[in-house]
Design a protein that fits this description.
- The complex is a heterodimer of chains A (158) and B (519).
- Chain A has 158 residues and is an alpha+beta fold.
- Chain A has seven helices and five strands.
- Chain A has a five-stranded mixed β-sheet, covered by helices on one side.
- In chain A, helix 1 runs antiparallel to helix 2 (26-37) and helix 3 (43-52) crosses helix 4.
- The N and C termini of chain A lie close together (9 Å).
- Chain B is built from 22 helices and 16 strands.
- Chain B has a five-stranded mixed β-sheet, with helices on one face. A five-stranded mixed β-sheet of chain B has the order 13-12-16-14-15.
- Chain B is globular.
- The chains are: A alpha+beta (158), B alpha/beta (519).
Chain lengths: 158, 519
């Protein structure tokens, strides 16, 4: 599982400072915050804007443009189900319905116990072994509803 | 003597348990005190056989697959290290007809070598293209690439040599090579496979591009959905720097080329070259007006070559063996090889590199073996989410840029997604519009608003509300998007929609009672 740490303003400042001199530094900065804390806290927006000589609106615009950057901490495990065409041809829509029911959450939601976050994804490049799902960093192919339940059960056990 | 066992670290192999298989092999070999070295190679592309492991024997490599962790003990008992008999034994991988009948130029090494071994790469003809390029004048390199007939493999099919020439002739204090590795099209994975399976070929291709046009800096813009490719590319780049194949004075040539991987952030539109450049600059991935072309005013407003992964990875062999060698594969104006990705509901899905010209029918039945579900094939979408849906009567269309354009489709990046007879093309058309709405950058109205209106109109048609009127409206909307959008997202979304309407009209005319019953 991905170990995110709780938001730490001092650490965030250090990460921003390390990368601010890169050409086109904004995405690398947002990625490192997202990778470290699981999300980009809104308190960082002003600081990033100052570091890169941008307006807060510009930084906010970028954070909200890209699907990857979260604005709230995710659950302990992030489950992404591919719902692009190749996976549709192998019944991913049924898998999506099953997952939503099993986890009791919709896309872009986190379970109340903070264990799972469910997100859609459009293609994982595993289209010959559809349907595909990622759990945290790991890709799983040929995921039937039964296999999905097994994978989730392993997370619960761990 | 050490026996080498190859176990892919390709993402698709990992998705079906290659990591667990590798651990089991390691464990079984240690328990038996066998002298075994595990090499984590790329995939040969026969993805239904993954995890496919190979053992090096005096008689050549012997493949087994699909090998799950649970099969490993039995395999060792059957004499795996000497290529022993077992029900999963596939024989020599080169002799499997799926692989044997391919023409592997760009993917010549993928699945064969250790992706991170520079020695392996060089022993298999790697860096010969760069060596030759370094002895040539830039104009000669451009001539070679132009003669090869190589066209952009990202989908647009623009001649690579012409693009390079434009950048070469543009005077500037700084130029860039940008590799578009934002492989977002559903049904495509060739870029991922080459980056994971033979990363040096991309690095070499980008270096040749840099030397040719006078660019000293390159970026690989990689989609964030490919974490394994990210790790492997970074590791390969570190090796290339260490061995002086990147950085200053490359191999004593006096040429400099620096290379860095940047991650995208989950936006499909960033596969469009101007959005990609905006994103690399740290902005929202909103497309730019063209002109100016990126070749004149690209990254940070400097002349920039933006090429797809496969285009760049095809350059080393062109420089090594000459433009004529590459050009002699293919048909008409589509020269060289196409890397086809056979995906979706297909029995034998995978990567097939072959000269342009094979028909869809050969691909789906001879290579693919029909659907995975065993039901009849009803539709095939070629070229990603913006590609047309083809019915059975068009399966004799040859895989060639012009032949596909003539059939109102597009080859795109070579992804072929197969659907069985349970597919509802009205639902697929609705999804095309929905996807466009989700991924639109918002700059132009036909795409931003048109896609949402498209979803609504298709939903009304399916629900049986004023069908004739709404069908006319949908056609009109598609016309507006086709002709009025700024880029290919809004401009090509009508392709899957109109092809569904043209070839599968019944799906839009189901009796409303049946629609209601199905829900």
């Amino acid at each position: 599982m991905t170990q995110y740490i709780a938001w730490d303003a001092a650490k965030a400042s250090a990460l921003i400072a390390e990368r601010k001199a890169l050409p086109g530094a904004l995405l690398p900065i947002l990625h490192t915050l997202n990778d470290t804390f699981g999300y980009v806290d809104k308190s960082a927006v002003g600081e990033i804007a100052d570091a890169l000589n941008l307006s807060r609106a510009e930084v906010h615009g970028v954070v909200t443009f890209y699907h990857d950057f979260r604005r709230e901490p995710p659950g302990r495990h992030v489950i992404k189900i591919c719902r692009a065409e190749a996976c549709q041809s192998m019944s991913c829509n049924a898998l999506v319905a099953h997952a939503k029911k099993t986890l009791g959450i919709d896309f872009h939601e986190t379970s109340p116990n903070h264990r799972f976050t469910l997100e859609p994804v459009y293609c994982l490049g595993n289209c010959a072994l559809a349907p595909s799902v990622t759990i945290d960093e790991d890709v799983h192919g040929r995921v039937t509803p039964d296999r999905f339940d097994d994978l989730v059960a392993q997370l619960v056990k761990a | 003597m050490t026996t080498r066992i190859f176990i892919p670290r390709d993402s698709s192999a990992l998705s079906v348990g290659a990591e667990q298989t590798a651990k089991a092999v390691e464990h079984a070999a240690a328990a038996r005190k066998l002298d075994v070295a595990i090499v984590r190679n790329g995939s040969r592309g026969m993805l239904w056989l993954e995890p496919m492991i190979e053992v090096e024997t005096p008689a050549g490599r012997i493949a087994y697959g699909p090998v799950s962790a649970a099969d490993v003990e039995g395999l060792f008992d059957a004499g795996l290290v000497s290529g022993g008999k077992h029900k999963l034994r596939l024989g020599r991988p080169e002799e499997i007809s799926y692989f044997k009948n391919q023409e592997r130029l760009t993917f010549a090494r993928c699945g064969i070598t250790d992706p991170l071994s520079l020695d392996d790469y060089r022993a298999h003809d790697g860096y010969r293209g760069l060596k030759r390029a370094l002895s040539m004048a830039p104009a000669e390199i451009v001539k070679e690439v132009t003669e090869s007939g190589l066209r952009g493999r990202g989908g647009a099919g623009f001649p690579t040599g012409i693009k390079w020439q434009t950048v070469m002739n543009a005077p500037a204090d700084q130029k860039y090579i940008v590799c578009n590795a934002d492989e977002g099209d559903s049904g495509t994975f060739a870029d991922r496979m080459i980056m994971e399976g033979d990363p040096f070929v991309l690095i070499e291709g980008m270096t040749i591009a840099g030397v040719t046009v006078g660019a000293t800096r390159g970026y690989i813009y990689l989609r964030s959905e490919y974490p394994h490719a990210f790790a492997i590319l970074n590791a390969a780049i570190a090796v290339a720097y260490e061995k002086n194949f990147l950085g200053k004075d490359i191999q004593g040539s006096g040429k400099t080329f620096d290379l860095e991987v940047r991650r995208g952030a989950g936006a499909y539109i960033c596969g469009e070259e101007t959005s990609l450049l905006e994103s690399l600059e740290g902005k929202r991935g909103v497309i730019r007006y063209k002109p100016p072309l990126p070749a004149i005013k690209g990254l940070f407003a400097k002349p920039t070559v933006v090429n797809n992964v496969i285009s760049l990875a095809s350059v080393p062999i062109i420089l090594d063996k000459g433009g004529a060698y590459y050009r002699d594969f293919g048909m008409g104006r589509s020269r060289g090889t196409l890397t086809i990705q056979l995906a979706g509901n297909i029995k034998h899905g995978g990567l097939i590199e072959k000269a342009f010209g094979m028909t869809l029918r050969e691909l789906i039945y001879d290579y693919g073996g029909g659907t995975a579900t065993g039901r009849p094939v009803r539709a095939v979408q070629v070229g990603g989410p913006l590609g047309a849906y083809f019915p059975e009567k068009l399966f004799d269309t040859a895989l060639d840029y012009e032949a596909f354009a003539a059939a109102k489709g597009m080859l795109g990046h070579g992804g072929v997604v197969v659907f069985d007879d349970t597919v509802d093309l009205a639902e697929q058309a609705r999804f095309s519009m929905e996807f466009c709405a989700i991924e639109s950058c918002g700059k132009c109205t036909p795409c931003r608003i048109g896609s949402t209106r498209g979803v609504e109109v298709i939903e009304r048609i399916v629900a049986g509300k004023e069908r004739a009127k709404n069908l006319e409206l949908l056609n009109d909307l598609c016309d507006t998007m086709l002709n009025g959008s700024l880029c290919a997202l809004g401009g090509l979304t009508p392709f899957p929609v109109l092809s569904a309407l043209e070839h599968f009209p019944d799906d839009f005319h189901k009796p409303v009672a049946a629609v209601a019953a199905a829900e």
